[in-house]
Amino acid sequence: MYKVIVERPRTGTGWTKPGRAPREPDDRRACEGMRPRGRSRKWLNENLRPLQRWLERQAGRRWDAVYSELCKGVDRRNTVQQHIHEHLRDFVAVDVLEIGGRLCVARDWGGVVALADSRCDLYVDPRNGCLMRNEAAFVDRVRKRDAHRLAAHARQAGWREGVRIVDRDVQLHRLDGIWYRIELAPVPPSRRSKRKAGIVLPGLAFDAVLHAQVGECESKRCNLYGRHDVYARRKRQLGQAELIAYRLRNGDGPDPFDPRWTAARRQRSRKSRGPLYFGEQHKEH
After folding, report:
1. Which terminal residue of the chain has fewer beta carbons within 10 Å of its beta carbon, N or C?
2. Count of domains observed in the chain
3. Could you tell me where the Basic and acidic residues compositional bias lies (predicted)?
4. The domain boundary residue, chosen from 122, 138, 154
5. What is the pLDDT of residues 81-113, one digit of tens each?
6. Phi then psi for 137, rounded to 5 degrees?
7. 31 in a structural domain
8. Which residues make Cβ contacts (< 8 Å) with residue 63, sequence separation at least 6?
């Protein structure tokens, strides 16, 4: 295992070694890069994947036996092989404590955290001393990945909590726990005052959701409808059949993103066409 992990060429060798700096200050360069002097551009290039696979196959065994077998193949007295032991804690949580019936990990930085928050896929169980798989971290990692993917789909679909966009002029809003169908209309143009010359007044229109004139709630309309050039001309509470069709539910509970909403919306937007007939239809006898 030692040869598989360590014996691989180091990267960062394609550079010219800087020479000795001139003694005279006038002969030195006027400009110098941001990289500090004397720092090597080479770095280690270990292949730690075989070590990780070997540790995963040892799950269920006593950690003392696993560690002894590892030390037989990777000698800690060798400087290069000692570096492999330093990466061992990247895969195995060794300092595991039981606090209040829960397993926690004592890290070098960050203090004590729950086992599910550890980045290690394996841990040493303090109750029996065996090497175990960190199933809690795996489940938590899958949950966070699914939540991130769902949030990305929600951003792409333009989803907002409590709002469903049916088309350009129709939206569904949840107001005080009740879903309404909102019909949007363009804001009427501004008009000139008949009493005072040179005075421009906003168009006469009343927003049915904000209960205010369109000239008094421009910023609120932009936040609510996503545009500032429209207002709610009419609103109507959704019936039971419409709630089922749109997969909605009245109430103040959470409103999670449903990927099936976009699929159902695309299906409803398609126009159904009947069969096409060309020429006269003849009945066969």
Report:
1. C
2. 2
3. 21-34
4. 138
5. 787 888 888 899 999 998 888 899 888 777 888
6. -70, -35
7. no
8. 94, 124, 129, 130, 131
